[in-house]
Amino acid sequence: MCSTLDLDVAVRPGRTVVTATGELDMDTSSCLRDISAALGLRSEALVLDLTAVTFADACGLNALLVLRHRVGLAGGTLELGGLPDQVLRLLELTGTRHLFTLRAW
After folding, report:
1. Residue-range domain boundaries for the chain
2. Which helix (H) or strand (E) segment is 73 a member of?
3. CA–CA gap between residue 88 and residue 36 (Å, rounded)
4. pLDDT at 42 over 90
5. Is the separation of the CB atoms in 91 and 56 below 8 Å?
6. Is the Cβ–Cβ distance between 49 and 81 less than 8 Å?
7. What is the mean pLDDT of residues 75-90?
8. Is the pLDDT of residue 11 over 80?
9. How buried is residue 46: exposed, middle or buried, by Cβ count under 10 Å (0-12/13-18/19+)?
10. Which fold, 5-103?
């Protein structure tokens, strides 16, 4: 159960958009990692809208990396959109920004 993270899913032609709201941390990272199994990923884009994420830590980053790997294994791509400054800074400090496709909106 993820009491501090909500994930809303919208399936669109050629992509699935997951909107995350709340905290992406040790308590909630498993929910994000598990979304790939729940969605039954296909070779399409998974867009993760992080606009409403209020906090992310190393466990949240690990969840993003695991999700990226799983989506890639399914032949798809993971795109991160609406990154809050704190999440972008986390990617920059850890040298992982280049691993993700970033979308601005």
Report:
1. 5-103
2. helix 58-73
3. 22
4. no
5. no
6. yes
7. 95
8. yes
9. buried
10. Transcription Regulator spoIIAA (3.30.750)
